[in-house]
Amino acid sequence: MPHEVNAPTPVFQTDKITKIYRMGEVDVHALRDVTLSIYSAEIVAILGASGSGKSTLLNILGGLDVPTTGVVKYRTTDLTRADENDLTKFRRKAVGFVFQFYNIIPSLTALENVRLVTDIADSPMDPKDALRLVGLEDRMNHFPAQLSGGEQQRVAIARAIAKRPDVLLCDEPTGALDFSTGLIVLEVIERVQRELQTTVVLITHNATIADMADRVIRMRSGEIVEQTHNEIRKSPKELSW
Amino acid sequence: MTALTKKLFREIKHLRGQMIAIVVVIACGIANFVAFRSVHASLSLTQSSFYNESRFADVFLTARRAPESVAQRIADVPGVDLVQTRVSADVMLDLPSVPEPASGVILSVPDNGQPLLNRLYLRSGRWVTVGSESDVMISTAFADANGFEEGDQFSAIINGRKRKLTIVARVISPEHIIDMPVGTMILDNKRYGTMWMSRSALSAAYNMKGAFNSATLSLENGADEKTVKEIIDHILKPYGSIGSIARDEQLSNRFLSDDIAQVQGQAIIIPTIFLGVAIFLLNIALLRLVGTQRMSIAILKAFGYSQSAIGLHYIGFALVAVSAGSIIGFIGGQYLGEGLTNIYARFYRFPALRFDVPEGVVVGSIVLSALAAVLGAVSAVRSVLKLPAAEAMRPQAPKSFKPGVLERIPLFRRLDPVTAMIWRTIERRPVKTMLSISMIALATAILVIGRSMFDMFDLIMDSQFNSANRQDATVIFTNNRSADVDNDVYHLPGVLRVEPLRMVPVDLSYKSKTKRLAIQSISDEQELIRVIDFDGKPVYIPESGLVLTTYLAEKLGLAIGDSLTVKLLEGDRRTFQVPLTGTADEMFGIQAYMNSEALSALLREQGSVSGAAILFDRSTYTEFSQKVKNTPAVASVMMRDAMIRSFDENYKENMDISTIYIVAFSMIIAFGVVYNSARIALSERAIELASLRVLGFTINEITIVLLGEQVIILIMSLPIGLILGALGIMGLPATYENDLFRFPVIITDRNLGLASLAICCVAIATGILLRRKLSKLDLIEVLKSRE
Question: Mapping DSSP to helix (H, G, I), strand (E, B) and coil, where does residue A111 land?
Fold first, then answer.
């Protein structure tokens, strides 16, 4: 693992985390002994079929969920020991989320959706700049119902990055989009990472998309089965599926 | 159980918070319906059957003294069926149970048994012995208030002589179902009661052998009451009659009938309000449910379930809520009805007043419930049926929003995102918002109107006992006395000040209108007895001419300076003209006042008085009471303290009960509305709120986002509710106004403040409940679910 030698402090470090959901009478092991590190300014793709545990892992990294056992560290903070307030603060300061279903607020315009976050962030960028970065400078005053799916997702990305988060966590960001729109969204993510040097964790079940990452982690049945390093990161333009 | 039925019950369990709120509102509606309808039925049935059995009279006559032969002339008047003459005497009583002097009326019963009319119901004891000067039967209300039983004795001053009376029976008379003296508004059965004595004994005591001073009569079917009354008044005029009264003016009957009518009104109004609110709540809850179940509905349709099966499934939610509410309401209604019946039974004495739920009420509540369920489910079911299956399988597109109306105003153009979210959500559904506002406003208005009765009572009590009548006691003499009676009164223990009273019965006429009343003298000083207007200010009584209440002046169509015809109904019965020199805007409907000297001059009397207002040293309360009790010249005494005390005893508890009632009911409405709309908002906006949490909003911050809408609705509802309440208060007096009383419009800050506070408490409680729900919001689950 060459990166571990080069980068001394990972952004995220997990140590043997497991997550067990009790579904009625049976226990479902969503994660089993997952140990991994994620480093600053890299794009990490987590690849796996549905039910492989990738979303659970992402939610735990983002402070939306806590593991059943094991330790998760964000830089020097132990997220497994954090209470609800600490986790809220962590999400507020450090994390940007992008979901498959954009989850933007329908009653607010694109600009207001971004302002929602910049209003509570410590040193946010200008909401307009965030929208410019995702190429929506002309649609700022549109409501979600007036935007296409790809545009809505770009609003979600602008909203996620406007606070200048340390990490951007994307859960199947192109899952609900057609190929060409999905591509635009991926380009935006890549551009943000490049320009802001944000660490990006990208969940996908599409192996091709993983080519745009620095590192690819493959999961199956709650376990990491393979970690590979892409010598050359492909630009989203070069991807096709 | 079919799978669809299982789904129904599981989901009801899931929605229990909202369901409970709806069930409670429906239960209140049905409970009130059952209680008030049943109480109305049993009161009116009991009234009419008791009136029939006891042959309640149609017309009531009084005279000074008429020979018995006149009775035959009355009986011969066309339309008259039966005539029962009797002797009636106002007496002062000295009761072992109260320190103050008490008073009452003794009525005669024929020596041959039950009277022809107004027959007595013997609750216990035996009939009076013919000719017995001590045997009396007393009203049960009077007996119960004083704890009297057969064999107990008390004294009465009968025609100037103090006599011991022995209670031989407790009876109920249709004429005294509520037993209170004419002209007062306070029921005081401890110090006032009706008694019955043998005719021969009572006539002997009052020198009425072969004569009568009171009579009752019944009319034949189809008789013209007005004509009969006119003829009889004409016959009795030479014998000192001041006019007959018909059944509908008779005090006890009037109180009872007014109350029965009021119960009937409540049986309509209260359930309508509750069921209306319940229908609204069902509508919004079910519409929301259908909204979250688009996918399930589409799948059911895809599987081949018929429209009607799916429609019925959603009506099922309403049916379950309404059935549960109705059953609880029906059971609760029985208790409520029994409680109400007990309250009425305390005021109205019937041989038997039982609470029964008539069949019609059972049927009525089933019909009402079914109606509520159908109306509550109709909009939801319609939207289910309209939903095309294929479209419903896809996730809903984002709801379309636009900038709110408010944002066109420059000041609001740049709302912060959270405020914008709240405001646009409100504006997006104006109908729902307006309905919510009107429901909460309604609850507020009910509180305000309900409480205003007590403010009004406080004001009346204060005005009557602290401003208008500042005397400690009012005595009325058996006969008019000369002015020097003052000296005698001053000899009573502790008397500090005496103001003579003169009441002169007259007919006032102006153009074609005539009104019968008593002119009251007001002394120059107006130290004790004053005329007080609605603003609490004393009214100036000019040295000459008449002052009428504004109400009466308007009724007669009089303006100041107009000349009225005054016909004396006592003494020489002269007629003369007197100018109207002032009006008094006061709480009594029909009153006429005159300066005492002007009145004496008019009557050509040298200061004749009918009574006196007395201020005395409070430390001599007992001695004063004792002395007055034993003064034969005194016909009746009203003691200020005793009146206030009896008011407290008789009405305070009822007022407290109705306060709790009103507060509880309006809070239930407010809670039902606020909780349901907030709960629905939570379900509609769960994804939004979870997204905000993911973005790093704290629980408190998203609570503000969620409750902001409710707070704005509340802020808009409160002033509307307060204004509605105030308008209601202003409308109230008109519904209660009669010739006896006019009610002041009183809106106190305290009332408005308490109502607002109560509604805010409901909102805060809802806020706390919802915050708990928000803190349990499962972010991952919510974000995963696509409705």
Answer: helix
